[in-house]
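Section 5: illustrative case.
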């Protein structure tokens, strides 16, 4: 579904992504694992058109999408829940959801989001900045789903959440996957990432250094030593 071939991304003279290739097949949950500063967010931003790639290809459903404008990429069915949520904190819950729907005029979608997150319905007129961290993450996911994506990318969705909300976020991810949405997940908690994905890639200094089935990676010595402190 998504195929990245040898992309390079620079921030002026910083070579942030180095000849990176990866692919995500339809129906999979794939995670991208790596330390702070490894290049995870930059990879997602390149896919969603928020940052330019210097060279290489990004294909989605056999179309080249590298360096297209973000609205065009969203319209093809790719949605992005950004790092740090980036909800509009002075707007209400409902207004945040409506913004997510600007490419999609299906008014029934909002009812589906409320079914998935009853908390958001209860709080639809509340100013989003006054929600708890977990509720804000639910809102960020709900907003991304308003465009009815085929492919959903989440950048550290459990960052700063209590264990109860971490579990809730992963329940939501699993249910979305069951309903047919393909998932590309960034997660710093390697245990969590590997236990909820089919496959994973490990990124270090902008390069993919390891990849495979999550069930195999979780028992690999390299992962245990570098990421699980075992
Ligand atoms: N806006 C920016 N300007 C300059 N350098 C950046 C910028 N954003 C990220 N970087 C650098 O690019 C590298 C990858 O960052 P990032 O993709 O945010 O990593 P991660 O999400 O894995 O923590 C890091 O070295 C970071 O310092
Ligand atoms: Mg990041």
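Designed sequence:
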């Amino acid at each position: 579904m998504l195929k990245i071939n040898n992309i390079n991304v620079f921030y002026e003279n910083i070579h942030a992504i180095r000849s990176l290739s990866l692919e995500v097949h339809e129906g999979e949950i794939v995670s991208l694992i790596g330390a702070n500063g490894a290049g995870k967010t930059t990879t997602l931003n390149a896919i969603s058109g928020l940052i330019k790639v210097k060279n290489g290809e990004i294909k989605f459903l056999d179309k080249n999408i590298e360096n297209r404008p973000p609205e065009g990429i969203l319209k093809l069915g790719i949605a992005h829940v950004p790092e740090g949520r980036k909800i509009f904190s002075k707007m209400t819950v409902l207004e945040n959801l409506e913004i997510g729907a600007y490419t999609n005029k299906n008014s029934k979608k909002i009812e589906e989001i409320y079914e998935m997150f009853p908390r958001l319905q209860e709080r639809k007129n509340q100013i989003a900045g006054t929600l708890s961290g977990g509720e804000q993450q639910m809102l960020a996911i709900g907003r991304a789903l308003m465009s009815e994506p085929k492919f959903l990318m989440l950048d550290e969705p459990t960052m700063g959440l209590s264990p109860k909300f971490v579990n809730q976020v992963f329940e939501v991810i699993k249910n979305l996957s069951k309903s047919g949405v393909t998932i590309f997940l960034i997660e710093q908690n390697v245990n969590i990432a590997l236990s909820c994905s089919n496959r994973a890639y490990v990124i270090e200094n902008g390069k993919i250094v390891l990849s495979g089935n999550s069930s195999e990676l979780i028992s690999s010595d390299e992962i245990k030593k570098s990421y699980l402190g075992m």
